[in-house]
Design goal:
By secondary structure, the chain is mostly beta strands. It contains 6 helices and 41 strands. A hairpin with a 2-residue loop joins β16 and β17. Belongs to the glycosyl hydrolase 43 family. This is Glycoside hydrolase family 43 protein. InterPro entries: Glyco_hydro_43, Glyco_hydro_beta-prop_sf, Glycosyl_Hydrlase_43. It holds the Pfam family Glyco_hydro_43.
Length: about 575
């Protein structure tokens, strides 16, 4: 029997950054979560069996939990950063960070000093846990002593559980250098465990980036594959230099035993384990290091494709082994819109989630080129991960054909990934129950803008709000037969009106496309027929929309369309 599925990238449209996933043996499906920054509800959970069809089943953060996480008090592009989803001792666990908490605002609006102190002692790092992906989720369990962002939670085969994340390098060699550290943690109490190793009992720095002047080595994930524990990190920042790196350590008897073996090896060489701070050790020695890098790094990036490539900023990946479809990764990417000037790329949708097949390969010859035939490998050595083998980049579409004798995976790149022809329709006044709010600002309910072009009817009562952040947005509303508009671009705001309503009552709409906000009316046509409305409509007003891009507004989020009553 032959079955064929086609997976189209991105798998989740609109602002769905920092994806993390697992294969759930109990549910027999993939479970995926993404970060949501200051949005409530937050940490949406999606499920799929085949990666082609996804269903939103729940949100880990509801309004009550958002209050306990201090989300109402975060600044723009703060809030929930980079979750890691795992099964730990039978529980669903999400490790995450709350960033940019405005302490003064929190105290002024009723947050207790004890709540704020607990969050700050953990640098915003916390765990949520649940017995079901439907919730309820318990927590937050603040991780006292954690430092940095992008926490990972990893349970090794020997039962030890490790907390791993990135922080600014304690003794940086250059601006932007970070370091990845790890420490065992007790998953019952969510407190750190002292390792009792000779070189120190606290945090262990295991990575500082693959290359010289590498910046923002972050989003670490640990995996056991065969006799090795692999470390994957994103590098270069979540922008045009974004990339994904792979490293590994030989650990057939567990990561802790591998660390012990590394310390013995360093001692036998007559070297000392560098001390980062009191009780903290560094496994990046001058002669040897614990984790060794894939010499073909990066294993995934689009930074080499140039600015003619519409899909940029690729990285922040998480691996998964599907029992039928094999190894895959999920990552973020940004679909850019070309600007007016050469080399100008603008992001309106934010970071979206993409998938790619992964194979494991060994080099056919040793890198030392000794000329002794194929390089030696042992049974427990899976080699190194290769993304989209033969393509070397993310695919637009992936066809997976399953037959009795195996699986065939065919990734393809279309001529262009950016710019859909038919406008998407987003009617913010249609009463949808899937809307989100920003922090606890309940006067406007939003939904993600998932593609461009998008057509948004202007409500006959209330307002259409197109938001990038609190200082970059546009508002459109009906006043009699006129459309009134206001744009806010940082400290600059513009307002005006244009006659729009036709005698037949046809509603005007805003088309977001090609770096413009166009107020359009098409007499006798309903905006619900978006293609006809746009093709036959009259443009009444054209506004330069570049101020709504991430490149102009700053931050990490994408545009949303909202309804303000």
């Amino acid at each position: 029997m032959t079955t064929t599925i086609t997976i189209a990238n991105p798998i989740l449209h609109g602002m769905h950054p920092d994806p993390s996933w697992i294969w759930d043996d109990d549910l027999r499906q993939i479970v995926l979560v993404t970060s949501t920054f200051e949005l409530v509800p937050g940490l949406p959970i999606y499920v799929s069996r085949d990666m082609a069809h996804w269903k939103h089943v729940s949100d880990a953060i509801d309004e009550e939990l958002a209050r306990r996480l201090l989300i109402p008090f975060v600044d723009d592009s703060g809030g929930v950063y980079a979750p890691t989803l795992r099964r730990i001792r039978g529980k669903y666990v999400i490790a995450c960070t709350i960033a940019r908490i405005n302490g003064r605002k929190a105290i002024a609006e009723g947050c207790s000093q004890a709540e704020l102190d607990a969050a700050q002692a953990a640098e915003g790092n916390f765990v949520l846990e649940s017995d079901s992906i439907d919730g309820p989720w318990r927590g937050p369990f603040w991780i006292e002593g954690a430092e940095g962002i992008d926490p990972d939670i990893f349970e090794d085969g020997d039962g030890n559980v490790y907390w791993t994340q990135t922080r600014p390098a304690v003794n940086p060699q250059w601006e932007g250098q970070t370091e990845v550290w790890t420490q065992r943690i007790n998953p019952e109490t969510w407190t750190f465990v002292d390792d009792g190793l000779p070189a120190g009992s606290g945090k262990t720095v295991i990575w500082r980036g693959y290359g010289v002047e590498a910046v923002w080595a972050e989003a670490p994930h640990l995996y056991r594959v065969g006799d090795y524990v692999y470390l994957m990190t994103a590098e270069g920042g979540t922008s045009f230099e974004h990339s994904e790196m792979a490293m590994r350590i030989y650990a057939p008897h567990g990561l802790l035993r591998a660390f012990e073996a590394y310390e013995r090896e360093v001692s036998e060489l007559g070297e000392c384990i560098p001390q980062v701070r009191d009780g903290e050790r560094c496994y990046l020695g001058t002669a040897i290091r614990a984790f060794h890098a894939d010499k073909k790094n990066p294993i995934l990036t689009h930074r080499h494709l140039g600015l003619s490539e519409p899909l940029q900023c690729v990285g922040h990946a998480d691996l998964l082994l599907h029992p039928e479809l094999g190894w895959w990764l999920v990552c973020l990417g940004v679909r850019e819109t070309r600007g007016k000037h050469d080399g100008e790329l603008l992001s309106y949708l934010g970071r979206e989630s993409f998938v790619a097949p992964v194979s494991w390969e060994h080099n056919p010859a040793d890198w030392k080129l000794d000329g002794n035939g194929a390089s030696y490998t042992h049974e427990g050595d899976p080699g190194w991960p290769v993304t989209c083998a033969g393509l070397g980049r993310l695919a637009d579409e992936i066809t997976v054909t399953t037959e009795d004798d195996g699986i065939a995976i065919e990734p393809r790149v279309k001529s262009s990934l950016a710019g859909d022809v038919e406008p998407a329709l987003v009617d913010v006044a249609d009463g949808s129950t899937n809307d989100v709010v920003v922090r606890d600002e309940r006067d406007v309910s939003y939904r993600r803008i998932a593609k461009l072009p998008t057509l948004m009817p202007i409500p006959m009562s209330g307002s259409l709000v197109i938001r990038q952040n609190s200082t970059h947005y546009a508002v459109f509303s009906m006043h009699g037969t006129d459309v009134r508009y206001e744009t806010v671009n940082g400290d600059d705001s513009q307002a005006g009106s244009v006659a729009a309503l036709r005698a037949d009552g046809t509603r005007p709409a805003v088309l977001f496309d090609d770096n413009r906000l166009l107020v359009i009316v098409a007499e006798g046509l309903d905006p619900a027929d978006s293609s006809a409305f746009v093709s036959r409509g009259q443009v009444l007003l054209s506004i330069d929309a570049r101020f709504l891009s991430t490149e102009w507004a700053g931050g990490f989020v994408g545009c949303m369309a909202g309804f303000m009553a």
